[in-house]
């Protein structure tokens, strides 16, 4: 709703921001460059695994889950702003 009001010129700021699924569409639209203010944002999102519960108590399972997550795809969905972290597995 906020995005539609922004596009119609009813508001100057979309309070909730632009939904990730719509970001590239808006950015590439004729008026998109005028509507988007690009800035740095510090945010860390993460997924945790309870390593005391099977099957995550096995390091190989945790490694497999890590390899199965398409981090680059997640970055693309989030407007190519973040970068995937790197980490080491603890045993």
TrEMBL record:
Chief place where the protein resides: periplasm
SUPFAM superfamilies: Periplasmic binding protein-like II
Domain of life from the UniProt record: Bacteria
Record's keyword terms, sorted: Signal, Transport
Location(s) in or outside the cell: Periplasm
Domain (Solute-binding protein family): residue spans on this chain: 3-78
Alphabetized PANTHER family for the sequence: PERIPLASMIC BINDING COMPONENT OF ABC TRANSPORTER (PTHR30290), PERIPLASMIC OLIGOPEPTIDE-BINDING PROTEIN-RELATED (PTHR30290:SF10)
Family: Belongs to the bacterial solute-binding protein 5 family.
Protein name: ABC-type transport system substrate-binding protein
Organism: Pseudorhizobium tarimense
